[in-house]
């Protein structure tokens, strides 16, 4: 009663409740009180809270759910099914931050991820060293497909073609400095879209390599300048980038421009404007 009158709009992040556990463990239980208080509500999804594991497996031969810890997929599937139901039945505006989620929630609007592009901006030249520095920084190996691509990257390293660096269980500041030092950033090979780390790498002006599901990227109508590769093609893709160093460096510059155009917050504000101004 004290809090609701202070607000006009609410974006329910990840479908989580805003009144603690008072009305359950999702935003659904809070909706009657918010509506009674005249608060306009929208839903915002980022990933696993709405992603359908079965659909993801069907369209993605490298799906992260193939390597999920035991019982994890079932738990996520139940949560995601509930949240997709809330999105359908509530009639509320729905926003998603990654393109692939438009396939799970066709009624949603893409509100691109936001990163601090100025903080990530880097003027260090790329592809000037004899052995370019290649960075992979998985938050969790199974969500990035790390074990599928590690042998390829290690082979390139052992052959003296790249200086491969794997960043795990290190601080955010350390990862940021390692991105700044890198020539090429290797993102994920298990989700089929691009997320925060790819945006940060692009903002730093680094060419980013990842597996992109064409259907997911097409859903948002924007194609990022990310080099598309699969675990099977990564070796040849990397050799191509090494062979065309000037072209790879230009790709880094294009990546920085893309990050500033779509991920500095401006495009996201435009996406949310219709909800926030009504």
Automatic annotation (TrEMBL):
Molecular function GO terms recorded: transferase activity
Alphabetically ordered keywords of this record:
Transferase
* Species annotation: Streptomyces sp. SID7499
Q: Does Transferase show up as a keyword for this record? A: yes
What is the name attached to this protein's record? Glycosyltransferase family 4 protein
